[in-house]
Amino acid sequence: MEYQDGPRLPGHAPAGARTARSRRISKPQVTVPPSLAIRKRIGAELRAVWNAASLAKADTALAKLVATYRDTAPKLAAWLEENVPEGLAVFALPEHHRRRMRTSNPMERAVQQELKRRTVKVRVFPNDAALERLVSAVLVEIDEKWASDTKAYIKWECQDA
Questions:
Q1: What is the number of domains present in the chain?
Q2: Are 94 and 87 in contact (CB under 8 A)?
Q3: Residue 145 burial (CB count, 10 A)
């Protein structure tokens, strides 16, 4: 039997015909990541929250930010509402300690660079246990170095500075 699109193969419906299978398959949900400009804007808005002068001002800025995204990006608003207040705990510290304590990036960077330096030399690990042993040994070394170091990351006695 010939159709406009060509011969009909046994067990196949003609082109354009709806089959039971095509009705069951729904259109996939496509999630598009936000553009770089949107991510930069949200980052700047979050920095304004974390750079606030006091906890009350940070809470106000956060509430305003959440309200901004409540209708347009409800998942982002819910995430901000749930997770950002944990980062505001730094406001309980004296003002001169906040800058160092609000992020652990410098410490994380040092650890990650050392782990990368050590693991790149090996390249291929025979198994996961070998990788875990090397990483554990490096982390123990770093911990011992930090524990024995006389230079303090934060000097707590300068509360009045």
A1: 2
A2: no
A3: 10
153 lies in a domain? no
Distance CA 159, CA 81 (A): 31
Q: Indicate yes or no: pTM above 0.90.
A: no
With respect to residue 64, please indicate whether it lies within any of the assigned structural domains: yes
Cα-based torsion angle of the residue sequence 139, 143, 144, 150 in order, rounded to the nearest 10 degrees: 150
- Residue 133 has a CB neighbour count (10 Å cut-off) of 12
Does 69 lie in the same domain as 55? Answer: yes
CB-CB contact of 60 with 95 (8 Å) = no
pLDDT in tens, the chain (161 residues): 444 445 555 555 555 555 444 444 445 555 566 788 888 999 899 989 988 888 999 999 999 999 999 998 899 999 999 999 988 888 888 777 777 776 666 777 888 888 888 888 887 888 889 989 999 999 999 888 888 877 766 666 655 54
